Amino acid sequence: MSRSFIDSRSSSDPLRRRLRRLSPSERAEEANAFLDLYFREGDADPSDRASRQREVRRDLERHGFYRHTTEELAFGARVAWRNHGRCIGRHVWKALDVLDCRGLTEPDAVAAQTFRHLREADNGGDIRPTISVFAPVTGDQTPVWIESRQVAQYAGYLETGRVVGDPANVEMTRICVSLGWRPPSTRSHFDLLPLLLRDAFGRRLVYATPEGSVREIEIRHPHYPEFASLGLRWYAMPLVSDMILTIGGIDYPCAPFNGWYMATEIACRNLLDTYRYDLVNAVARCIGADTRDPLWKDDVVLELNRAVIASFRDAGVRLVDHHQASAQYLDFDRAERANGRMPSGDWAWIVPPQSSALCPVFHHAMTDLKDVPNFYRSRATDGADLSLSRVTEERGRILTRADNWRRRWRDWRRREI
Predict the structure, then answer these.
(1) Rounded CA gap, 31 and 53, in Å?
(2) What SS3 class is residue 243?
(3) Which of 131, 196, 219, 220 has a CA that sits 20 to 30 A from residue 33's CA?
């Protein structure tokens, strides 16, 4: 495994700027609520709850943090996925394979495990939902974390006013090149970027992706051989690596996780969005679309999705179409309600970008409770409103009023910081 680095420390820690700001009382409240949930739903002896809560309370008072057991970590990671309102594929949240990697604290070890995760979660094409959880933030100490948005992603080169590759990764590509990464001698639209880490001192390190770690699918159309001339391909599995896992008041900034793709993520967004590959006109030429027809772009979307679905099927790699995913989301919704839980859902993220009104989720009311445990990218965006929702708890009038007061006070305080 090759790597290189430069010291990019500054007076402002980029990870610290992203972490949620919790007061000691808020952290204790989240820890206590998580343990209540764990002993209520998890595979744990209820008689141990009081002693475990005393132990955690003592650690928080003395050190400002506590350490989850392996069982608590696994349960918390699965619940974080269950609570994350932007994911349509949560019907298999219980099957998430949680790898406790907290003992791996050196950048080389973190990179090696991340690439191992990439290979093993592929599972011969029968992709297995997996998360590798590395060291948490402990007091003033921040651990190694991954700066790459995804472990597998394509470079974007800015050349004479145009972008070759993925425009979303132009800056990331520039950074990797400045750190010593050498792109292929013949640059293409689909060159895999290396993995970009930051060590505990804030230094950037770049690791070349080992040969054979990333399965890529060539996109071919079953009825339009002209598709081959586009040279399209995409990596088989999204391994998201820039989100922070928060469990019981403890943040894990390095917790790469994967599911499998929904076809529209690749076809409608990655390949067709104007700020990404913007292939609408190129695909239209391949299928002979009549651009005088007001619905010609709809034909492009349909045929590119058909190509992606057929290509993944022919390669034997798991992928779901948007109609299947919508039905699965409603199964998840019903199961959660049957278990006395209010499911979280962000409508704008759950409803697929193709045939939206034909998908049952389009007509389904949703509320994103932004409950914890959860995943977030930054306290300035999706992490700003994460808190204990307590929406399905029997709290009583006085406790409910106290919850509302604390929430208003917390929101005001965070706006003032």
Answers:
(1) 8
(2) coil
(3) 131
Structure tokens belonging to residue 138: 């402990």
Other Cβ atoms within 10 Å of 288 Cβ, number: 9
Answer whether residue 162 is part of any domain. no
- Domain containing 360: what range? 12-100+215-386
Tell me the pLDDT of the chain (417 aa) as tens digits: 555 544 444 447 899 999 999 999 999 999 999 999 999 999 899 999 999 999 999 999 999 999 999 999 999 999 999 999 999 999 999 999 999 999 999 999 999 999 999 999 999 999 999 999 999 999 888 999 999 999 999 999 999 889 999 999 999 999 999 999 999 999 999 999 999 999 999 999 999 999 999 999 999 999 999 999 999 999 999 999 999 999 999 999 999 999 999 999 999 999 999 999 999 999 999 999 999 999 999 999 999 999 999 999 999 999 999 999 999 999 999 999 999 999 999 999 999 999 999 999 999 999 999 999 999 999 999 999 999 988 765 555 566 566 666 666 666 666 555
265 catalytic? Reply is: yes
Spot the catalytic one: 81, 93, 181, 260.
260
The number of domains in the chain is 1
Is 242 inside a domain boundary? Answer: yes
Question: Which one from 265, 286, 303, 336 is the annotated catalytic residue?
Answer: 265
Q: Of these residues, 82, 90, 198, 379, which one is catalytic? A: 90
Answer whether residue 308 is part of any domain.
yes
Concerning whether 90 is annotated as a catalytic residue, the answer is yes
Residues in the chain: 417
The answer to the question of residue 411 being in a domain is no
CATH number for the domain spanning 276: value is: 3.90.340.10
State yes or no: is 16 an active-site residue. no
